[in-house]
Amino acid sequence: MVAARRLGFSDLAGWDADDHAAALSTYRLTVNQLGPDWPRPDGREARQFFEQSFVPVELGPPPGLITGYYEPEVEGRAEPAPGFGYPLYAPPADLPDDRPWFSRTEIETGNLLAGRELVWLTDPVEAFFAQVQGSVRVRLDDGQVRRYGYAAKNGHEYRSIGKELTRRGLSAPEGITADGIRDWCHANPDAVPDLLRHNPSFVFFRQLDLDAGTGPIGTAGCPVTAMRSLAVDPDITPLGAPVWVAGGPHATLMIAQDTGSAIKGAQRGDVFCGTGTDAGHSAGDMRISGRLVTFFPHLLAHRMTQ
Question: ∠ CA 259-265-271 to the nearest 5 degrees?
Fold first, then answer.
């Protein structure tokens, strides 16, 4: 069982300065994922609603690790074309629910997803990063932008290729950013297939019908919001719960609306940074030692911390 420590709002440095109304708007999107004991917005001013309805609870000992993710936007084609040879795939028809399917290496070397192609990209690294992020916008040659989101995965454990480059002595000991991985791959194209296959996990996609102004769909079933939606470990943090995220320049109330293969543990969060290149830089550079504090209704907080 994860240790739980009750806090007060005065213990949250930066709480007074946050945009509580923005957090409340995001909370509204997934509050119905929570049980009846969790408070629903009722017309009270946002800060008052949070302070009167919740108790901040620190789950597990800090420091925690705060990283970022984003929705890439890349060029692609609806059909295979010269220069566009790296597809994103729909799930296979025989994907099992109770055991892993084939690994990334087996899928690629055996061409096991032939006929399941959804869209074709220019670069194997960008196709790989689309899988890591779980969503992507693809600009087609006719000006259309298609949205693709997570549909399923092959059931194998995620392994970081950044950590693998570090293990091989090809990056600094403190790690490597997403842009650093791209630079290394572009400088060493012959080594890219082997590096990517270090990660046996493989993500399948589905096409989404979303407004251009909304974020991708998170695990909680709604579009995620830049700098207000957080990926968490759902075995510890309930999806839909408010979470105070503090570390580096961030002191912000976010809402747990997504999950990720690498997001495990009580003091672990992944911030949705937005869409496109700038968001990608922000997400790639975000690796912060910080603190996560989850808000629980009074009765539940009392049970957890007594």
Answer: 45
In single-letter form, the type of residue at position 203 comes to V
The closest alpha carbon to 28, from 54, 55, 46, 15, belongs to 46
Domain with CATH 2.40.240.50 in the chain: 71-208
pTM of the shown model: 0.90
DSSP secondary structure of 43-92: SS-HHHHHHHHEEEEEESPSPEEEEEEEE-EEEEESS-BTTB-EEEEPPP
pLDDT at position 269 over 60: yes
Q: What is the pLDDT of residue 172?
A: 63
Domain 4-69+216-305 sits in which CATH superfamily? RlpA-like domain (2.40.40.10)
Which element (helix H / strand E) includes 253?
A: strand 250-258
CATH superfamily of 71-208: Barwin-like endoglucanases (2.40.240.50)
Q: For 162-221, write each residue's pLDDT tens digit.
A: 989 989 887 665 557 888 899 999 999 999 999 999 999 999 999 999 999 999 999 999
Q: Find the distance separating the first CA and the last CA of the chain, reported in whole Å.
A: 14
Q: How far apart are CA 130 and CA 273, in angstroms?
A: 15
Q: Which of 16-25, 178-187, 240-249 has the lowest mean pLDDT?
A: 178-187
What confidence tens digit (pLDDT) does each residue in 65-74 have?
999 999 999 9
Ranges of CATH 2.40.40.10 domains, the chain = 4-69+216-305
